[in-house]
Design a protein that fits this description.
The protein has a five-stranded antiparallel sheet with strand order 1-8-3-5-6, with helices on one face. Strands 2-7-4 form a three-stranded antiparallel sheet, with helices on both faces. The chain has one domain: YjbQ-like (Jelly Rolls, Sandwich). The relative contact order is 0.37. With 134 residues, the protein is α+β, with helices and mostly antiparallel strands. 26% of the residues lie in helices and 38% in strands. It has three helices and eight strands; from the N terminus they run ββαββααββββ. Strand 5 and strand 6 form a beta hairpin. The radius of gyration is 16 Å and the shape is elongated.
């Protein structure tokens, strides 16, 4: 089962998509398997990180800006090379285990869509597979 979602983003941000993941798992009826959360964009990504303190999201974005600043030496014509670097570092997808019909996330974990080149209308997909399909 695969579901696609649309998300409107700001210039930069982390958007909690854990609820959408849980919704697809619930609708699928899968009790044990995996879910893949996938981003089809080259200047955005998917990560799993802390969902209890919003300062963590701020700090992650700050750290990525520091690690991958915009540079005059970049040659990409669209001027968003730093966003491409951030996206490659974070990655385009995450795999989440499913047990007892729920994502097997840690107490403080959430799944985030990471925007590095907004504002945009973005898409992401969730695919759920039960153990027999893996």
């Amino acid at each position: 089962m695969t579901r696609e979602f649309t998300l409107r983003t700001e210039y930069e941000g982390m958007y909690d998509v854990t609820a959408q993941l849980c919704q697809v798992i619930r609708e699928s009826g899968v009790q044990s398997g995996i879910a893949v959360v996938y981003c089809p964009h080259t200047t955005a990504g998917i990560t799993i990180n802390e969902n209890a303190d919003p300062d963590v999201q701020h700090d992650l974005l700050f750290g990525l800006r520091e690690a991958f600043p915009d540079r005059a030496a970049f040659r990409h014509g669209e001027g968003n090379s730093a966003a491409h670097l951030k996206s490659s570092c974070v990655g385009a997808s995450q795999i989440v285990l499913i047990e007892d019909g729920r994502p097997l996330l840690g107490t403080w974990q959430g799944v985030y869509f990471c925007e590095f080149d907004g504002p945009r209308t973005r898409r992401f997909s969730v695919k759920v597979m039960q153990d027999s399909n893996i």
